Amino acid sequence: MVLERQGDDPALAASLLRVLTLEPRELMALLMRGRLHERAGQSREAAAAFGAAVAVAPPLDRVVAELRPALSHAVAYTERHRAVMADHLDARLRHHLAECEGPGADRFRLSLDIMLGRRRRYDPQPLLYYYPNLEPTEFFDRAQFPWLDPIEAGADNVRSELLAVLAQDTGFEPYLQYRDDQPLDQWAGLNRNPAWSAFHLVQRGLPVAENASRCPQTMALWSAHVPAPRQSGRTPVAMFSLLKPRTHIPPHTGASNVRLVVHLPLIVPPGCRFRVGNSVREWTPGRAWVFDDTIEHEAWNDSEQLRAVMIFDIWHPALREEEWRLIDALNLALDELGTGSPALYSN
Hints:
The protein is of the alpha+beta class. It contains 11 helices and 11 strands. The longest helix is centred in the N-terminal third of the chain and has 32 residues, at 68-99. It starts with a helix and ends in a 10-residue tail after the last helix.
């Protein structure tokens, strides 16, 4: 508070980082971080900090009187930010929607209204983006995905390339890499921990050149047969996922239900289990499955050996092709908000 009154914003930012590293839900620090970003004209960052403060705060009438004006300001700021976002997305997507009239466009409009808080979300599962009227399914019927036949037929080649990568022991990184000032909750034990590691082949929609070059047969198989979801800067993704002995991945959900996740088991010792919702399965090497990762799921390796699975994503099969285009257009429009353009906040 002294630093804020002195106007020493660089020192204030460093102090707030230390506070929120110790306690990511500290209400006063989140409100001060929001004010800091607001003074700097960093609208998106201010909205994120104020939004976090609103999320962790008790009801206004239970907040100490001294904090009520600041919290009220945070609520108003996040509402204005949401309105700006809504206007921007409506304008950017209008012509895309005009080109994609039909049931798919109607479902997309509902997804946008839910994301922006204009309509109620009745089936909240994904962390970031909910798409309505997609029936939640734990494990999908294998018969829905005949293209998995050649994927499974090539599993031995994929496993051979994985073993070569493991022998070199390079290119792997911890699956989770959160900053210290983010709430970790169930991830504290696995954050930056190689017990759960990934060898990324395709990340945020683009091949990881060095890694992909070491697995040419795997990449050729994936490219030829997988209906990969094209979301600019986000998907597709493909990786080798390693789970070391006696490691448990706690219950969690994925970011969006517009895409499903495929597991192709490669190295699976006895004692490895996987739960999605109420269904628990054991992997069988070379036999793939498809599941909705926005349904709570978790994994165990109770063995004394390494477990390795190839993971990649696909579009949800209920989506239409025009919805693919609309979803990608939405992501591009959202990315524009991250440019910090003053024009987006001029009113």
